[in-house]
Design goal:
The protein has about 200 residues and is of the alpha/beta class. Helices cover about 40% and strands about 15% of the residues. Helix 4 packs across helix 6.
Amino acid sequence: MTLDHFIKKYDIINSIVLLEGKRDVADEDKPRLIDLGRILASRTKQVLFRSGNARGADLYFSEGVSSVDKERLQVITPYHDHRKKTNLAFETISVDRINLVAEPEVVYQSKQNKKMGTLIDKYVSGDIDRYSIKAAYIIRDTIKVIGTEEVMPASFAIFYDDFSNPRSGGTGHTMNICNKNEVPFVDQSVWMDWL
């Protein structure tokens, strides 16, 4: 996929594009992530960009987008005030403000992450402690893709992955949720050619 093809297909009303990835970003790649966010925001008019507000790739992509048009940046956070000082988004939606009992598909798909199943049940039931709060991060990653009753689902996703340990952690979970829901995505093996 080329940048022009991406723009033609996804610069439409109600298009949501995820920009996210690993927390550890190679020093030489940091300006590239910022550049991509800037290029995408300046070359499109209707796309809403969505991030998870994490350190690393999420922040660098967000810096690029917000430098052009902060009003087209939305973040889904695991809890209210998550990394508030570095949140560059115009709109923030936090998992702890969503009635997860009314979102069974979010819970079901989040539990596809087998390591987190018990913690997700605990979190959704309201039993929140320093361990179950970890479930909010996986739930956030699921919501970023499939949305909720009030949050639109993603149309496309752009990732920065760690090729030495690909599709692992929260980024890997998000990629798996994209696959399950037929949300197309690319990683830096594709989008680096867009710069």
